[in-house]
Amino acid sequence: MSLIVQKFGGSSVADAESIKRVAKRIVETRKAGHDVVVAVSAMGDTTDELIDLALEVTPQPDPREMDMLLTTGERISMALLAMAIKSMGHEARSFTGSQAGMITDARHGAARIVDVTPVRVREALDDGAIAIVAGFQGFSRDSKDITTLGRGGSDTTAVALASALKAEVCEIYTDVDGVFSADPRVVKRARKLDQVSTEEMLELAAAGAKVLHIRAVEFARRHNVTLHVRSSFSHLPGTLVVPPSEKDTMEEPIITGVAGDLTDAKITVVGVPDTPGMAADIFTIVAKTGANIDMIVQNVSLAATGRTDISFTLPKSDGDKVLTALRAEQPTIGFQSLQYDDQIGKLSVVGGGMRTSAGVSAALFTALKEAGINMEMISTSEIRISVVTRADVLNHAVQVVHTAFGLDADDEAVVYAGTGR
Amino acid sequence: MSLIVQKFGGSSVADAESIKRVAKRIVETRKAGHDVVVAVSAMGDTTDELIDLALEVTPQPDPREMDMLLTTGERISMALLAMAIKSMGHEARSFTGSQAGMITDARHGAARIVDVTPVRVREALDDGAIAIVAGFQGFSRDSKDITTLGRGGSDTTAVALASALKAEVCEIYTDVDGVFSADPRVVKRARKLDQVSTEEMLELAAAGAKVLHIRAVEFARRHNVTLHVRSSFSHLPGTLVVPPSEKDTMEEPIITGVAGDLTDAKITVVGVPDTPGMAADIFTIVAKTGANIDMIVQNVSLAATGRTDISFTLPKSDGDKVLTALRAEQPTIGFQSLQYDDQIGKLSVVGGGMRTSAGVSAALFTALKEAGINMEMISTSEIRISVVTRADVLNHAVQVVHTAFGLDADDEAVVYAGTGR
Q1: Nearest CA of chain B to the CA of A169: how many Å?
Q2: Mean pLDDT in residue range B385-391
Q3: What interface predicted TM-score (ipTM) does this complex get?
Q4: Per-domain residue ranges of chain B
Q5: What are the binding positions for ATP in this chain (chains A, B) (predicted)?
């Protein structure tokens, strides 16, 4: 009997009705003859509400206690889900992160999974029960304390379970039909992709595609887990995210998709002395803040001044701490000033085909030029090209490029009312 | 350094503000040079809200999952309380029932404590931290599952911890100043008792005094734990509930207090054949339903008929199941009919002094007679006399008796707005 791991996000279990609907769906899979393990998130906005409550008590909640607090969210949804399934006449057992053997390090709020020992989950399956596991949470063997994996952690929980239990597939249920060649809310003729490689998915996620949490995709790639991103509102097949080896390269298009991202900002370090190792010094400081840098561009140094500018993009949420860290080191580095710009948009085209096909960047730049869209930064990886534009023209840019690469579908994509995960 | 266990109920931690107030109170105790262990209930009506949520999902929630669900309530309040204390610059660590070593049997929803091994609580104290323990919950060694102790369980958690940790005292914080000679809401001149024996407290609780959960008092008596019932809204000393031995008998009054209870109903089994062992048969049937019987009265048999009536009181909530059970056995027992009366009030006078002083019942009956209050049932124990009256005259009866036994204070008791625990 094949084992399937299913992950349901907060919007899929927002209230009693949704929980019953999800329970029905799980039971269908069980009836189809599969062993089923479910990873579930907290109901709707529970996590945010708990955070607000903590902030009412103290502006700096203790990390250990914060994890103790937040992990109650998934325990509520998993218990309700197990009740719902049992009320439909099927065995179900819920397990907390520690009960499910999600062993992590002790970094509260951003714990890393170090081991998965789902002994009790196995027992439940052997007893013919459906196992419901609390997403997002784990347990530190060293500190004996409860930990959380950080935002989007439930996706990671599901993939880690799928890997440890050798599941046939890990189904990630969301409120769209799957992974699209572009955001259907932006590009009307966005095309649902039947299959992408984990590598491409990783670039798409990094490029701003919200559908999957990047950490979960990384985990899936490292452990060869096949993901199936599909809608919890329909029974249509979604998008298979498969290890590169398994992907049928015959069908591989040059470009898989186009992604737009408005969550980044740009910092420019102006007038950096153009001496060896300066960039290293700057990004060492940035790295210490824990900020995630995406694109980096260094202008050609102006011989006259012997100084250069270094620009990089990072999540807006990391802006303040990085600016503060750099200002503190201004004397030692000796740059002239800092510029912060949070009105940028990042457009990325992703596709395994790029490796082998020349001229993708040329085609991209041409499309943007014809649309009169200015590029402020460019960076390329083996299967991704990203450019920075003004924020207000990003959606138009995504449209144009999607069409230019012949990705438009024949008919328009269905967009659900769902609030996303 | 002496160890104090403090218990705070749901109304004391109903919102962020109350939690900060309680945290301040705990820190004061710590600053006074004590080790402090806190048992805390779920915030306000959280438990009821979680129950409602479960009932929305299914009319018969699975007991194991129900416990998984309900135990999140105390985890939220304890985490918030620990955060609040840490934000005041004191070390605090919260522990779930299992982390605190609350080992119970596997009876979900009504688990019994079988062992208390508070190893991590000890470690926290040795590290100079304040330990916050989730009330109401435990962990079954056999099933490895999370359990709950049933309603009022947080009082029991506190007493069990005090016993296991050899605490100097177990402080039960509530919204009244302590244990009164009668309900201050009924008797204006009710007197706050400085000290009562656990035995008397047990009778008072059984007689309807809401201030302490009867199970916790039983536990305190069996394990010689001294309780201090006091208000979380004032710093006045409350009522010490001490093992009989320790109670200063010099001060022992004949009557400790008067309690009224409107939660009971009366069942009369009419026309029972007056043959040996009939009562035994009837109460075996009743016992099988798990109902708690309080008073039992058997009328003198009428020689003419050879039949007798047997009346007993029980919680209204148990009425239906007992009536059903008895009707089912009517043929075998051969009684004529059943009468159910839920309009009764139960008045009890409690006092260790009764043992040695004659005429307490006489004085009680006289007081009621002079007030024109009719008694329908009478039962006496070594330190308690209870009588059943009509429900609508109970409060008046309590007033009258309180005065008759000279319990009235010189001034009126302060009644807080608090909603009780």
Answers
A1: 27
A2: 90
A3: 0.73
A4: 3-247, 254-405
A5: 7-10, 174-175, 185, 210-211
